[in-house]
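Support reply, case 0932

Customer input (verbatim):
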Amino acid sequence: MLRYRTVPVTPFQQNCSIVWCDATRQAAVIDPGGDLPRIEAAAREREVKLGQIWLTHAHIDHAGGAGELSRRLGLPIIGPHPGDQFWITGLAEQARMFGFAPAEPFVPTRWLQDGDTVQVGNCRLAVRHCPGHTPGHVVFHAAEARRAFVGDVLFAGGIGRTDFPGGNHAQLIASIRERLWPMGDDTVFIPGHGPESTLGEERRHNPHVRGA
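Our regenerated output:
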């Protein structure tokens, strides 16, 4: 059984998620943007062992702490899609621009492609490439748990910004329609910011994608 805990981090209150297999207590951390002591404390409280870092995309509030956490704990960095290489290359500049602590550079241990899978303990999640907010954005779908970790693709009542370099509004809407909606209306999604919602709720009522 997949379990998770969401830990808001950074001044942007980004939803970092610790996900783990209940049977093995093996865990991955999704989008450790910063506030690493808070993330590590949350893992200790749940008595789980962090073994991987998964990235949905490489904006500073999602990836800013990945390099340091990987170095200190010896964790592989999985994702995002190679389309976000230029955002990884520019992490130091992103940190300066938005007033974040310096971000350590890193090279992902494994890039992700649409249709890949990632695994923590006995739990396997599907990877969907969902460009639009960034070119290399991916989401992680736990079908059995009816959960999806969608980064900044979709929010409760909103969608991701597309005015950053590499953003594309039409592409984002297509990603939501073609990649997220087929996961099912009853799937709960954990966005990069703000409260959880269901895909069905957003498909019916979100003014940005209603009827898409």
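We compared this against your earlier run and they match. Two observations from our side: The chain has one domain: 2-205. Residues 25 and 48 are 5 Å apart (CA to CA). Please reopen the case if you see a mismatch on your end.
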